[in-house]
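Note to self: the last two entries modelled the partners one at a time, which told us nothing about the interface. This time every component goes in together.
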Amino acid sequence: MALVELRNVSKIYHLGGEEIRALDNVSLDIEEGEFISIIGPSGSGKSTLMHILGCLDTPTSGTVKLDGIMIQDASPRELAAIRNRKIGFVFQFFNLLPKLNVLQNVELPMIYSGVPARERHRRAMAALEAVDMANRAKHRPSQLSGGQQQRAAIARALVNNPRIIFADEPTGNLDSHTGETILQLFRRLNAEGRTIVLVTHDPEIAAVTPRRIEIRDGRIAPKPDLRLAGLQTRQ
Amino acid sequence: MGPTLVAGLREIWAHKFRSLLTMLGIVLGVSSLVAMSALVTGMERGAKEALIAIGGLARIRIEPAELPAEQRHLADQAVGITLRDVEALEQNIPLVTLTSPEMRIPVTVSANGRTFRPWLCSGVRPAALEMFEHRIAHGRMFNEIDDELARNVCVIGTATRDELWGAPEDIGREIIPVGETLYINGVPFVIIGMFEHYESEQERREREFRQRQQPQPQAQTGPQRDRGWGRRPGGFAFRLKNSTIYLPLNTVWMRFRGLVATTGFGPPRLQATNVVPDRAEPVLSSLEVKLASIEDLPETLQQMRNVLMVTHRGIEDFQFRTQEEWAEQIETFVRNARISGGLIAGISLLVGGIGIMNIMLASISERVREIGIRKSVGASDGDIFVQILAESVVISVLGGFLGMGAALGLVRLVSQLSPTGNEPIVTPLALGVAFGFSVVVGILAGLYPAVKAARLNPIEALRYE
Ligand SMILES: Nc1ncnc2c1ncn2[C@@H]1O[C@H](COP(=O)(O)OP(=O)(O)OP(=O)(O)O)[C@@H](O)[C@H]1O
Ligand SMILES: [Mg+2]
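The predicted structure of the combined assembly is written out below.
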């Protein structure tokens, strides 16, 4: 059984009578330990897919099974618990709380899973250790560089030891060098056994992931883009 | 819950000034609630104290009254209130535990080269002591024998002593004129006893305050200290009580029968129909009756009326006067004061609550993104709801505590500025109610913003700039 099973998932928005199919009958399996990149042009539905995978949104039709749980049947409270324990999210704009320091930001998911303060602190420090940010624990996000903020956000995504990590353009807001270090971090995490799904615009990033999925107009493209294929051969 | 509360406190601390302004309404509401309640409770206690000082609710006065219109033509047959009424009531009304017949006379007293017109000079039996809760501080009360023999003896209150011999505060030592001779309307009487000095709690404190302020008596040339009657209803009752002179009932009848007032309370009017210079039978100014209980007051009064109608041969030339009116006035006053105080406090609390709701709404629209982030890492709708509600309640309760502090300070200030007034009393109940109100206002004010925040869609919240 795959870790994630998407079956005929559609997400339809209605805007002034017009029907927008952000996702159109998507089926997809993600196995434990995979490192997948999702590519596709702007507006093709990548973020929509990630939100549904990440239990932030529900599909209009179709079924999503995550770690054996049928997402579309879950209550909002259960979805919150799934987001909390089984999923780690990494965003393009880091999304750290500006009023909390790095350590408190990383502790945040554990507050909602009721981890005692001492244990929270220990695990948050361990997660910061893992992304090489332990020496910035007491800094505010505004006192950090973009790459450091993103590493703090990754530590937050890791801290509850989730089954899968979703990253929506995690390098989109970073210069190419910093983006590269973040990518290295993801590769290391994957090597340690973590399941990672990563949305990107950057073909070079997509090229290093073992599996690539291309989305066009809300559908999974049958075969990889030619431009991408060219890149791959060049590599 | 713990971390949520901490987050709420942190949020409030991050906007110290804004939070303080937001609390202001609650501070005002709670402080006015507590302070008003304290003032009213203080006044209530003062008034009740005075009510007890004049004998309480169980004391009923029977006094002469105008005849009803249909009996006017019988006026010359009216007998007035007499000692036969006393016997009749004692024998027929079991609830009557004490009777005190009274003959009031207008007098001028003189001694020590000074004269004084006391408020009340009356002939009574020894029972008057208990009836009016008098206490003898020096000497003794006259007894039945003094009464029987119509001796020229009297018992005075401290006001008479103060006027004729000087008050202890003014001359620096207490004179006890027991054994001295007092001329009452020119007739010599021996003072055989003096009542203790009656004063309300406030007056006692006032006196002690003055003593502390000026241990040595000040020059006599300055304006006299306020001895006026009726500045406060409570003080008034005590002053009247101090200005009392009691003589044996028989003595008054023997010496001053022509002066006995038989027209109800107040200055005597010498009316031809009411005062007969040589009455055969002693006519009383009034008759006080004390009841064992005031449970069935209307029924008891009806019974007493029936008994008196017999002794008065069917002529209703008497009426009852109870202290209920005063008690009711106290209650009405207290109720009105509480209602208006509550109204003010309620409006302040309402305004305070609206202020909190307003600031919470502003706060969540500032923090849409934060809420989205919290939800994305696993906060449930309930977590967000509790967080916002907790913030609102914490603001309100902090405001409540500030308000209670302000009220305590205010009450302190009031009792320091006027140490002689009725001291405000802050009751634990008032504090509890104030605390409860601040919690309730916090919850009500936070409810809508909290629901609004909890319902935010995480994706839209995350996209929010
Ligand atoms: N709330 C919404 N209401 C209406 N249409 C929406 C909504 N959210 C997304 N869409 C539409 O769904 C489609 C897919 O959007 P999505 O954000 O998934 O694209 P994307 O692939 O992530 O694009 P990008 O690479 O620019 O981030 C777009 O056409 C978008 O306009
Ligand atoms: Mg997107």
